[in-house]
Automatic annotation (TrEMBL):
Residues 378-583 form the DUF5941 domain. Pfam families: CDP-OH_P_transf, DUF5941. One of its GO terms (cellular component) is membrane. GO terms for molecular function: phosphotransferase activity, for other substituted phosphate groups. The keyword Acetylation does not apply. It comes from Streptomyces nitrosporeus. Keywords: Membrane, Transferase, Transmembrane, Transmembrane helix. This is CDP-alcohol phosphatidyltransferase family protein. Belongs to the CDP-alcohol phosphatidyltransferase class-I family.
Length: 584
């Protein structure tokens, strides 16, 4: 830390700092909590940030800051103000850092101003103000505030009351020993994989160990996010790991349960894949609805107003959070049932709970959509098109044909296409080409559904309909084939495709758009993969080649999407996605 006598000297010192380093300007009269400064000056997610009396800039905003500082020095030297007269911040911060923050905002460099809550950050105007500020600092333990703020503001009942009361202290312990959130995330994954391996033994001791380890993995899963918030260690790599490892842990555990059951003579692979499909479809309903309404104009709904009124009654908040079976409740249920019962009972309970949660959340979203008066934006329509994951076949159809007008035509076409495809997979003979014909018609209807922008009331149902159609088709064809190990191979294929779809979601949430079109074309889009699986079933089901083909397809899809995903998330352009609202 170096003191500068005036703005001109501060500009000289800033220019001398290597261009790849972060810089901060703090008024020497500043009085406040250390954590207030930490929030304002160390969060890596923003190019520039400020609290009263302090301003920071990352390398990308350094040039703008230096330009503003030199302009300030010139203005002061000429007898003028540091910032234009109309540029005083709303919080009244008339210090040099405060005025520079206004100048940066005016120039187009957004300055983040974190919510400080009860924390103090001020530049006193005189001795009385300084004494009052120092008293406020002494009266509040900012470490307690820091610990509380490490926990998500909105979380599930189990996480809030059974995990967070002590996991926040584990997070602090990790921070004081230099551990990073990514290391804790990796430890959570390893613990879950060991749990899956324990479940795969098929013994009662293995099941008990698996349940305990799964809960420990979840504790670590909560700790990594709390550590990131406690120490403000946000990163693009951390965003990617946190977004994908939860799914990897859950699916690996399902596979471990299925392997353990098989050792005891009980084949539950269909139930395991069904649970994975249902959970993935639940998520895409949430993702699709949220993206459709992310920035809706004139967004009003009586249903939303009723929801807000219910939230004013304490017990309804927790009841509604529990009924959606968020990850905390879900993993606790899985862990306890694993230790005390059998894998079949675990999957029965999981399917029943997820089905109830899916019905509740989807019904609520439908009511909100039908009662909401909103005009969706072009960005929302583009996000839904990206989530649809349409490949060359559907896009080709959409370029030639246009769906009829009307607010419900897109979701009706998507639902009809899905019902046709899954119905054919369920009922048509597998030794003919009726399923293949249904897959071709599915591609045509899917292309019609996305041939116009998805900007109408219920168009957010289109991506979930396609996900359900593709995943269920793979599940049904593998289950009906009676080919040894076909369902485990299908489990691998759906896992690879689901990873691609989750990757798409988090790229969109980060504001960087969907994966590149070449990737979608390479993996065929949802309709292309469905057609390929249908052809493989028609040609290979009588023999054992179907399992080999599904395994090869799963490996190919996984290789392509993982390589591109890793390349993107470790690149400098990847967003730091940290979703505080998702419970699943």
């Amino acid at each position: 830390m170096t003191a500068a006598a005036d703005a001109a000297r501060a500009a000289e010192l800033l220019a001398a700092v290597p261009s790849d380093q972060r810089v901060a300007l703090v008024d020497p009269r500043f009085v406040g909590h250390v954590h207030a400064l930490r929030l304002g000056l160390t969060d890596p997610r923003f190019p520039a940030a400020a609290v009263p009396g302090a301003l920071t800039a990352q390398p990308g905003a350094r040039t703008a800051l230096l330009r503003a500082l030199r302009g300030a020095a010139s203005a002061v030297g000429a007898g003028g103000p540091v910032a234009p007269p109309d540029g005083t911040p709303a919080d009244g911060d008339r210090t040099v850092p405060g005025r520079l923050a206004v100048a940066l905002d005016a120039e187009g460099t957004a300055v983040q101003r974190p919510e400080l809550g009860s924390l103090t950050a001020t530049v006193p105007a005189g001795p009385e103000d300084r004494a009052a500020a120092e008293a406020a600092v002494a009266a509040l333990d900012d470490e307690a505030v820091r610990l509380r703020s490490a926990v998500k503001a909105h979380d599930g009942f189990f996480t809030t009351f059974f995990i967070s009361p002590y996991s926040r202290y584990i997070a602090r312990w990790c921070a004081r020993r230099g551990l990073t959130p990514n290391q804790v995330t990796t430890a959570s994954l390893i613990t879950a994989l060991i749990a899956a391996g324990s479940a795969a033994t098929g013994t009662r001791g293995g099941y008990v160990a698996a349940g305990i380890l799964l809960l420990l993995s979840f504790v670590l899963d909560c700790t990594d996010g709390q550590l990131a918030r406690y120490s403000l260690q946000y990163s693009t790599m951390g965003a990617w790991l946190d977004a994908t490892f939860d799914r990897a842990k859950e699916y690996a555990y399902y596979a471990g349960l299925a392997l353990g059951a098989a050792r005891g003579g009980d084949d539950v692979w269909v139930l395991a894949l069904g649970a994975m499909v249902l959970q993935a479809c639940r998520h895409v309903v949430d993702f699709s609805f949220n993206e459709a309404n992310h920035d809706a104009v004139s967004n009003t709904s009586p249903t939303a107003a009723l929801s807000d009124r219910l939230d004013s009654v304490g017990w309804t908040v927790w009841a509604r959070r529990m009924i959606v079976l968020p990850i905390g409740e879900r993993w606790a249920m899985i862990a306890v049932l694993t230790a005390l019962t059998t894998p079949r009972i675990v999957f029965y309970a999981l399917l029943a709970g997820c089905a109830l949660a899916a019905c509740y959340t989807t019904a609520g979203r439908l009511l909100r959509s039908l009662t909401r008066k909103a005009r969706r934006t072009e960005r929302a329509a583009l996000a839904l098109a990206d989530l649809a994951d349409s490949g060359p076949l559907a896009q080709g159809v959409g370029a030639v044909l246009r769906r009829p007008g009307g607010g419900f035509t897109a979701p009706l076409l998507a639902l009809a296409a899905g019902l046709l495809m899954v119905g054919a997979a369920l009922l048509a003979p597998l030794d003919g080409f009726l399923v293949v014909g249904a897959a071709v018609l599915y591609a045509v209807l899917a292309g019609l559904a996305v041939s116009r922008p998805l900007a109408d009331t219920l168009d957010w149902l289109v991506p979930p309909a396609f996900r359900a159609a593709e995943y269920c088709t793979v599940l049904v064809l593998a289950a009906r084939s009676d080919v040894p190990h076909a369902v485990p191979a299908a489990f691998g294929l759906v896992s690879a495709v689901a990873y691609h779809h989750y990757d798409t979601v988090y790229r969109i949430r980060g504001g960087t758009g969907a994966p590149p079109r070449w990737l979608v074309r390479t993996v065929g889009g949802h309709e292309g993969r469905t057609l390929v699986v249908a052809v493989l079933a028609a040609l290979l089901v009588p023999g054992s080649g179907f399992t080999t083909a599904l395994t090869a397809l799963a490996a190919a899809v996984a290789l392509v999407v993982l390589v591109e995903s890793i390349r993107f998330w470790v690149s400098s352009s990847a967003p730091a996605v940290h979703d505080e609202g998702e419970l699943a």
